[in-house]
Amino acid sequence: MGVYSNRLTAEVRLERMTPEQIAAARARRPAIYVPCGSIEWHGYHNAVGLDALKAHEQLVGLAQQHGGVVYPPLYLGAGGGHTEWPSSFMVSRGPMVQLVSELLHGFERDGYRQAILLSGHYPNHPEYQQAAVDRYRATGGKMRVLSLIENQVPGVEGDHAAKQETSSMLYLHPNLVHIERLLDGPQDDIGGPNERINFMVDEYRGHPCYGLVGVDPRTHASAAEGRANTERLLDYLARWLDE
């Protein structure tokens, strides 16, 4: 369970709701939110489902605070070039475009008027999310739909399993972060608080941060950073809903 899921007073996760609960939530705010992600390497300290776990919990927070319901997370990533890493699985773009565009039409038939597609796996947005929205509109879809990744929001930074994503998880799902697993190797504190490092190259093979891209999380990740980024994201999404 996450920081928002733990304090729900009314259920917003679609798969856990009865038809009556769904109808009541849709009457209050006819909006549905789809978290997209992947299953892929996120360092020795993070869960491989980080992308979708992050996006799902953020959207639970949005629904909790502003209404709407949250569709179950899509643990399906496309693009990114991580398939040589352990437990990293990517799918083809074409089937995902069809699947998501059909979902959008289904949401509209069910009475929703707004939809948000939020991907924690950044390549999903250009690979299939926006193309699915375009296909949905080209085939007669009328809902307002927003497809985005978090670092498209002003003031929100992104990375791959380094300072930013680790910070988000320290806030959203602290029980799933094991930063101590990065402290067994050299404590070299590579770079400064804003210096991005590509730890995926062979130079860092065997290093505790191998497979990360961004600022060294060992000394720079924090729950406070994750909370600030999440709150900026939710404020942005709430403003879009109210336009």
Gyration radius (Cα, Å) is 18 Å
Q: Could you describe the largest sheet, including whether it forms a barrel? A: 4 strands, parallel
Q: What structural class should be given to the helix and strand makeup? A: alpha/beta
Distance between the termini: 31 Å
Give the uncertain stretches in residue-range form. Answer: none
Shape: globular
**CATH homologous superfamily caption:** Creatininase
> Helix share of residues?
25-40%
**Number of self-contained structural domains:** 1
Instruction: Work out the strand percent.
Output: 5-15%
Strand order of the largest sheet: 2-1-3-4
CATH architecture: 3-Layer(aba) Sandwich
Please count the beta strands (DSSP E, at least 2 residues each).
Answer: 6
The oligomerization state is single chain
Tally of separate helices:
7
* CATH topology grouping: Rossmann fold
The CATH class turns out to be Alpha Beta
Q: Could you report the average pLDDT, rounded to the nearest whole number?
A: 96
Secondary-structure element series: HEHEHEHEHEEHH
